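Q: I'm writing up a methods section and want to include an example of the input and output format. Could you take the sequence below and give the corresponding predicted structure tokens, formatted cleanly so I can copy it straight into the document?
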Amino acid sequence: MKLILNVIWLVLSGFWLFLGYLAAGLLLCITIIGIPFGIAAFRIGVYALWPFGYTTVERRGAGAPSCLGNVLWLLLAGWWLALAHIATGIALCLTIIGIPFGIANFKLIPVSLLPLGREIVPTDQPFAAR
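A: Here is the clean output for your methods example:
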């Protein structure tokens, strides 16, 4: 079932969201300071490409650097990526078939706003990272 959901997701919105994260990651990797943010964008981009069967959990011990990084991320790329998720989610919710995918888009908004200090794990092992 996860495979079918992921393939439909890929066609409807996953590929375009992945391209948005890829563009954000490439722009952020231009400077040395932005490389960690670019890597986070690539990581979330892969998650946005194939999200069913995975979830995010908070990483213990992320601490203050993660909090500061999230503030910078929010200013640099988070708002734009969250707006992409909102627009795609609203567009998908206009059809009955797209409603579950629109809801999945809305669930990706917190990760797109504050990605640092989170880990992407399979849904059958959500506590393995802890």
